[in-house]
Amino acid sequence: MIKPLAALFAFTVIAGQIPASAATPQGMGVDPLVADIDARDAQRFALLMNDGAVPTADMLQRGYLDGAGAGVQIFTPMRIVDAQRLARAVAARADNYRYAIRECLPQLPALRSDLRAIYLAFAGLLPERPLPAIHVVFGAGNSGGTASPEAQVIGLEVTCLPGTTPEQFRTKMRAFFAHETVHTWQKEDSSQAPTDPLLNQALLEGVADYLASLVTGEVPDRQRDAWAAQREAWLWQEFQRDRQAMQKNPDSLANPMADAHFRRWFANYGSAPAGWPHEAGYWIGMRIAQAYVAQARDPHAAIRELLELRDLAGILKASGYAP
Questions:
Q1: What is the CA radius of gyration of the chain?
Q2: Model pTM above 0.70
Q3: 96 and 179 share a domain?
Q4: CA 311 to CA 112: how far, in whole Å?
Q5: Which residues pair with 154 in a beta bridge?
Q6: Number of structural domains, the chain?
Q7: Which tens digits make up the pLDDT trace of 15-41?
């Protein structure tokens, strides 16, 4: 049963408002001691599905996209797109949205302490990096999270699929808090991605997973980690083969997302190769990042170099990664 309106409004007061003190005095990001989860957009969406109703595109436009907060504004261009697309996604998987509203939206206040612990760890590791605001929204079922330079946004209908237990939800959200924070710091070097798109994407995502594992003490995806660790040498051979194939193909370099080699490793949530976990390229990138820091004389400097990614081939070579 969907939570009644009074309960939803009460929750908005508890967890949907970020205190003014959340920003640091210098305006450089969020103060980890008072970091909070802005769930106001998610609450507005939940009201549209009160009593289990499936909202129309017009309802979603007027009640959700119009007057959207920063989270929905960031999520709209590449994920939600428009009210019609969102309405189709909700109608196709209405039970997913109902489950996330009923089971996981009320759990967000309890995750505040996890967020603050992760942010305190990041503040110790990289004190010069601003910590982003966090928004939880409902999207079109195609992304668990995204990041802009100032904020990270989490799609609740993806992070809380039907059957997700409270402990599983907590673990997943901790991983997203940490992983997406790293993405707010990364600045992709456009001069490198066109020449080596597979390695570029692996390091962008793998560095985020590596740093997430440092501050949470947990591998971001345990099932993927267990699967990949059993076949690491073979996976690396496959990755290298696909990487080289893309580098030799001008069409692959011009549009990596359309290339079958690329989609074996990335952007394949729900469409990974048979027997594979989704986004296996994250794991490859994480292993390269781990090896790079392990080989470095100054691990702190190495981590900052991984965030900049100014020399993809140089990082791979210096890592010595060759299982």
A1: 20
A2: yes
A3: yes
A4: 37
A5: 136, 145
A6: 2
A7: 444 443 344 443 468 999 999 999 999
Residue 191, in any domain of the structure: no
> How many CB atoms sit inside 10 A of residue 164's CB?
18
Least confident span in 5-14, 84-93, 300-309: 5-14
**Tokens at residue 67, please?**
């007057």
Please indicate, yes or no, whether residues 302 and 177 belong to a single structural domain of this protein. no
Whether residues 88 and 159 fall in one domain: yes
Do 135 and 209 lie in one domain? The reply is no
Q: Are residues 106 and 229 in the same domain?
A: no
Residues 201-224 pLDDT 10s? 999 999 999 999 999 999 999 999
Residue 13 lies in a domain: yes
Domain assignment of residue 41, given as a range? 5-185
Q: Does position 243 have pLDDT exceeding 90, yes or no?
A: yes
**8, 10, 20, 42, 91 from 53: Cα distances, Å:** 15, 21, 35, 16, 10
